[in-house]
């Protein structure tokens, strides 16, 4: 803080005291100004008043750690040029945009010029301001641009404008399930303490992996691995508005390979307040490249089996449907399901890779089958 006086010791009001990379303080009717800055601030205080000059037009400071009192200036009438720009530093987003800066110069007839130092900055000049248009930042790192504003023989010239533009947001990592999930809309929950493995018994528990529970496409809970004395565990809360009966399937995000694993053995049935697995004896979920699962709807569906397996019989492939299947039709024939004998019987006894089949269901039911590739399924009209 300090005071600005004329040569006779009279206070001078309305004087601008500009602080580098900070604000401008204006003297009051007693010529007093004050300014609060951050601990360790380094920069200049520059004074400006129309048609006046100062015995000391600026003061420099280095790593301020305490109050700086009695920082006084003496003003006198003068036609000597002086210039300041406000603000002299701004932070902007990564998007394309513009910003304005005010130029204070005395005498008003004095000329000044500006020079951008970066190609991504375009400047426009008016009598007392600068408009800066900046392009969008396509990089994820921030960038700094500067503009030099100068007036020949002017006090406090040149003025440097600094524009710090943020980098573009990094692409989101992960599947984005957190945007789909809101536990507050559900009444009931169950818990699952588990580990996730692949077919070769390798644990899938990298720091940024995610295990999620689903009912259809509706996310019902998420968990990331947490370290315990027994190794990493997923502590998954599963939510529902039905106390029992909903089938819960699982999906796993493999952060190492940045992919979502859909084929996880096996689904479970939701039970209110159920607790499956412990830290010492965790439930095991297996991400399998040899396990295929798709839902067949009530009435007619198209399916094709794009795999070769040691047992391609109708009874083997459709065994997971239980008594929900009615009839399957292919080019080689058809078979009907006989609930009494729990078997498929008819002229169609085996299924071929790439062949198309129509299957009719009593109700929807997941079809699970050991396989290497997905089963394409398309519902037909009843």
Describe the structure in your own words:
The protein is an all-beta fold and 382 residues long. It folds into 4 domains: 2-78, Immunoglobulin-like (Sandwich), CATH 2.60.40.1120; 84-165, Immunoglobulin-like; 177-289, Sandwich (Immunoglobulin-like), CATH 2.60.40; 293-379, no CATH class. Helices cover 1% and strands 49% of the residues. It contains 1 helix and 35 strands. It has one helix at 314-317; strands at residues 2-6, 16-19, 24-26, 32-33, 43-48, 52-54, 58-61, 73-77, 82-86, 89-92, 97-106, 113-116, 121-125, 129-134, 143-150, 159-165, 188-198, 210-215, 218-223, 225-228, 231-240, 244-254, 259-261, 264-265, 268-271, 275-276, 283-287, 291-296, 299-304, 325-330, 333-338, 343-346, 356-361, 365-370, 376-379. The strands form 8 sheets. Strands 17, 20, 21, 24, 26 and 27 form a 6-stranded mixed β-sheet that branches. A 6-stranded antiparallel β-sheet has the order 32-31-30-33-29-35, with no helix packed on it. Strands 18, 19, 22, 23 and 25 form a 5-stranded antiparallel β-sheet that branches. 26% of the residues are buried.
